[in-house]
């Protein structure tokens, strides 16, 4: 389903992000998890992507399997790094031929075996270039949907790690939107005020497309530290740190705190008319399901569907 149709159907969207496992067994377990989420009626799920072939085929295979065997819309990530225009066009053509309706366009990071990759070799220097190319592909009429791919991009409530100038950061985001973007998914955050401020700054910049709030429940101390790296230095509020510190030797207690914090974030976001909530699952859906059950989000999703 095209993202524009999803937004027309769902007043509030709920979605999940997964990454493709590297083994056949892992892929089977993950697909079972995704199938179980069908009963929650998510608006869509998206699948991350590794540049340079690291998980490229795995992403493609998982996206297509969800598309064919699940009731949920699947959205693949696509990154600029380590790619030529020819490679990107081939990937888009394959997805279009299979009826995939949407792409999440990102700059991306180098694969682990190419950390010193020379970005000057890339034909697409940033996500804006990729959005423009996808829009050109759409205009060519090569997609079975006359609208072409729906296009999403990333937003950074706490600031883009490579752009400390917040005014320049918003100018960069506006260029991505003007290039043909349909929606924004934010990086994870733990303080809702950062999201509200980001949303207001988008409005001031003339950005009116849907903005989905990215949440990731903490489930362990190790996971908390991993989040800080994944989100390029995510800010953890002092109240959250104090709560985790009180029981860091009790893994189950840490998990309960993380789920409670994310549940309260989600509740407050809904009260502030968030357009959508996007859960970063790290391929573990238990925490997300608990949030769904606590807030009865499955009923919200079913009503909007």
Description:
With 305 residues, the chain is an alpha/beta fold. It has one domain (3-304): TIM Barrel. Helices cover 48% and strands 14% of the residues. It is built from twelve helices and eight strands. It has helices at 3-9, 24-36, 56-69, 85-98, 127-139, 166-178, 192-204, 221-230, 238-246, 251-271, 286-295, 297-304; strands at residues 13-18, 44-47, 74-79, 102-106, 150-155, 183-188, 211-215, 276-280. An eight-stranded parallel β-barrel has the order 1-2-3-4-5-6-7-8, surrounded by five helices. Helix 3 (56-69) links the parallel strand 2 (44-47) and strand 3. Helix 10 (251-271) crosses helix 11. The longest helix is centred in the last third of the chain and has 21 residues, at 251-271. It is globular and about 55 Å long.
Secondary structure layout plus pairing:
Layout: H1 3-9, E1 13-18, H2 24-36, E2 44-47, H3 56-69, E3 74-79, H4 85-98, E4 102-106, H5 127-139, E5 150-155, H6 166-178, E6 183-188, H7 192-204, E7 211-215, H8 221-230, H9 238-246, H10 251-271, E8 276-280, H11 286-295, H12 297-304
Parallel strand pairs: 1-2, 1-8, 2-3, 3-4, 4-5, 5-6, 6-7, 7-8
């Amino acid at each position: 389903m095209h993202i524009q149709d999803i937004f027309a159907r769902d007043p509030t969207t709920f979605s999940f992000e997964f990454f493709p496992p590297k083994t056949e067994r892992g892929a089977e377990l993950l697909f079972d998890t995704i199938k179980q989420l069908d009963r929650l009626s998510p608006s869509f799920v998206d699948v991350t992507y590794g540049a340079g072939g690291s998980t490229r085929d795995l992403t493609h295979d998982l996206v297509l399997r969800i598309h064919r065997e699940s009731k949920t819309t699947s959205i693949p990530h696509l990154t600029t790094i380590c790619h030529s225009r020819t490679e990107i066009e081939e990937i888009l053509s394959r997805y279009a031929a299979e009826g995939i309706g949407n792409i999440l366009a990102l700059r991306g990071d180098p694969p682990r075996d190419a950390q010193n990759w020379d970005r000057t070799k890339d034909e697409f220097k940033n996500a804006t270039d990729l959005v423009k190319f996808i829009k050109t592909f759409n205009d060519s009429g090569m997609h079975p949907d006359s609208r072409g791919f729906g296009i999403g991009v990333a937003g950074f409530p706490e600031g883009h790690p490579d752009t400390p100038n917040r005014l320049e950061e918003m100018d960069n985001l506006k260029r991505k939107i003007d290039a043909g973007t349909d929606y924004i998914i934010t990086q994870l955050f733990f303080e809702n005020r950062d999201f509200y401020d980001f949303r207001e700054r988008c409005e001031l910049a003339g950005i009116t497309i849907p903005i989905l709030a990215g949440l990731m429940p903490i489930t362990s101390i190790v996971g908390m530290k991993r989040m800080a790296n994944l989100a390029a230095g995510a800010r953890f509020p002092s109240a959250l740190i104090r709560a985790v510190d009180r029981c860091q030797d009790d893994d189950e207690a840490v998990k309960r705190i993380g789920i409670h914090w994310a549940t309260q974030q989600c509740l407050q976001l809904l009260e502030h008319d968030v357009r959508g909530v996007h859960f970063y699952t790290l391929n573990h859906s238990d925490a997300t399901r608990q949030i769904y059950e606590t807030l009865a989000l499955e009923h919200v999703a079913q009503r909007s569907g």
